[in-house]
Amino acid sequence: MLVVGALPRISPGRFATLLADAGSPAAGEALACWQAVAREGVDPLFALAVFHHESKLGTVGVVAQFDLRNPGATRTSRTGAGEPVEVPSRGQFVRYPNWTEGFRDLARRLVDPGYVYRQRGADTVEAIIPLWAPVSDGNAPGSYIRAVLDFMQRHAEEPVPGVPLEIALVPRGAANRPGYPLRVAWVTVHETANENPGADARAHQRFVHSGGGPEGVSFHFVVDDQRIVQLLPTTENGWHAGDGAQGPGNRTSVALELCVNRDGDWERTQEHGARLVVALCRAFGLTPEQVVPHQHWSGKQCPRRLLAQGFEGFRARVRQRLSAPAGEVIEIGPFKRRLGHGFLSLWRRLENNDPTLPLRILGWPLSDEFGYGAATYQVFERAVLKYAPNEPEPWRVHVAPLDEGAQVARWARERGLTA
Ligand SMILES: [Zn+2]
User: Fold this and answer.
1) Cα torsion at 358, 362, 363, 364 (round to 10°)?
2) Looking at residue 212, what is its pLDDT?
3) CA-based angle 125:43:350, to the nearest 5?
């Protein structure tokens, strides 16, 4: 199972809920931990599975006893964060300043071009674990692999909600898989410009797998009205932007192609593309302004249909979905409300202390989540919860009617968003 260069298979909300439910000491940093791993291009569900196998999410073993804040139970640091600690009869481990740095280091070692995983092309659970926990160190990689895969299968969510995602990577060593390290700073949107019947995602998968034509093109994802196919890991560059071997389009952006085959449903393809872009923005902490047409890099008239319709329309679709994150519908009192993105885990954590506590502190939820400015809010009787992923403190509880909360609650009331 591909876990380096793969989209997150767990949402920040579910990640937070699993840590909170286990009584993990990392629960308070859940969102920052998820982000630290996803930003490196590593699946946070894999990091969580390793954390679970090593220390039951920080609750047992040397990680708990010696307060290491070290989800991977690593003995050295690749990021430079943390300090060595000598554990009697177990040798050296790293103690990190916080859990977030521990998670960042877990992910960084997997993508670091100067380290063993990348050098040996180990990007799947099956290839990583024997290097992570070698037999020579007294480990049993076979059972470790099974435990990680089992944990991941139990807790996996769809990386792109509602759209089947297939992974069919171009083989290493192919001319159109150059393998230069990519740190995603942009999303580049293309169209295939092939309107022939049957020119769908699978057809373009075959095209890229057989060399990508005379120019040797490649891109990370191809999208049609049925599915998304991933062709390159998000941790490696492709040749798609037409701005040269060192161009920022080719070297700092992740690329998707929208199929325009006339026997496909163009509206559905755009919707699938927007959902993929939202997943990429969440994973890499990008704003809709960092989603650009191919034209941005080379002037080429691509993506032709979206440019003709106005690229801003596609961006607006992304912006709307980004600010209205998916959640779970739970029944709270007389209301059926959608609590997500960690709002639910906050509610549950309060409930765990005292079942009446969330109601006493927050009151009934009066709205679902909604986007306002760059943040997501939810209005309760006595408070307004705010989630702003790009702020240093993404979580805020505003006690209405004292501050920003009152303003947001009024805005929501005027638009009929609250009960
Ligand atoms: Zn293009």
Assistant:
1) -80
2) 97
3) 120
Q: How far does the centroid of ligand 1 lie from the alpha carbon of residue 270, in Å?
A: 15
Ligand 1 centre and the CA of 111: distance in Å?
Answer: 27
Q: How far is the CA of 118 from the centre of ligand 1 (A)?
A: 29
Give me ligand 1 centre to Cα 281, in Å.
19
173 Cβ neighbours under 8 A, 6+ residues apart? none
pLDDT in tens, 199-220: 999 999 999 999 999 999 999 9
Q: For domain 12-155, give its CATH number from 2.40.128, 1.10.530, 3.40.50, 3.40.462.
A: 1.10.530
With CA atoms as reference, report the closest residue to 383 among 363, 359, 399: 399
* CA–CA distance, 321 with 313 (Å, rounded to integer): 13
Q: Which fold has domain 165-322?
A: Lysozyme-like (3.40.80)
Residue 343 has pLDDT above 80, yes or no: no
At 388, which amino acid appears? Answer: A
Contact 24, 59 (CB under 8 A): yes
State the pairing for strand pair 83-87/91-95.
Answer: antiparallel
- Domain 12-155 identical in fold to domain 165-322: no
| Cα torsion angle, 341, 343, 346, 347, sign | negative
Neighbouring residues of the ion ligand 1, judged by CB less than 5 Å = 190, 294, 302
Environment class of residue 162 by beta-carbon count within 10 Å: exposed (0-12), middle (13-18) or buried (19+)?
Answer: exposed
Q: Tell me how far CA of residue 389 lies from CA of 12, 128, 289, 292, in angstroms.
A: 10, 30, 15, 21
Sequence-distant (6+) residues with CB within 8 A of 283 are: 7, 8, 38, 39, 41, 184, 234
Residue bearing tokens 């089992």: 150
Distance 28 CA to ligand 1 centre (A): 42
* Domain assignments of the chain as residue spans, ordered by start: 12-155, 165-322, 327-414
Cα-flanking dihedrals φ and ψ of residue 392, to 5°?
Answer: -60, -35
Categorise residue 310: left if φ over 0, alpha if ψ from -120 to 50, beta otherwise: left
Residue the block writes with tokens 């502190």: 361
- In angstroms, the CA 172 to CA 179 distance is 8
Reported as a pLDDT band with limits 50, 70 and 90, residue 380 is confident
pLDDT digits (tens, 9 = 90+) for 389-412: 666 666 777 765 566 777 787 888
